[in-house]
Design goal:
The protein is about 45% helix and about 10% strand. The protein is of the alpha+beta class and about 170 residues long. The protein has two domains: about 1-75, Ubiquitin-like (UB roll); about 75-174, Orthogonal Bundle (DNA polymerase, domain 1), CATH 1.10.150. Strands 2-1-5-3-4 form a five-stranded mixed β-sheet, sandwiched between helices. One FE2/S2 (inorganic) cluster binds near residues 113, 151 and 153.
Amino acid sequence: MTTVTVNGVRREIQAPTDTPLLYVLRNDLELTGPQFGCGLAQCGACSVLLNGKEVRSCIMTLGSAAGKEVTTLEGLPARWAKQKGLPDEEAAKTLHPVQEAWIEEQTPLCGFCQNGMMIKATELLERVSSPTVTEIKDAFTSGVSPHLCRCGSYTAIIQAVQRAGAAMAKRSQA
Ligand code: FES
Ligand code: FES
């Protein structure tokens, strides 16, 4: 039995500790935001936050996530609500500003890569409130591998990150 906190809830997982975290999230916990793209840490479709840092859940084992906090795309609204101390009724209706910006900018094309893009954007914006285009490009192309979008939605992603950053900064001042 392995204990992992997923989207704020402590979960006891009955699976071998070498099971990829992605399989646990999708198959055991029915969290289908993270996608199986390459399975080799080469695309970013499977990304989640592990203790606030973006990781590739396709190559991370369940055992290496033991005792840590995992946030998936599904958990972003609650993460934001907790960070802002929103009351329960407001938290239940809210999306994370990154998700709102993605909708407002109509960012996805086929959508397959967008889980990883939003997770990466969240990680970046929790560190840098108003990133420049260069900082956004660096964030999405550094690390274990660049985040890949076969549909070429990169320009829309940059615009959405900037929109989300502006919204988060504004709400921090409110
Ligand atoms: S599926 Fe994990 S990086 Fe591609
Ligand atoms: S929107 Fe299709 S792969 Fe990125």
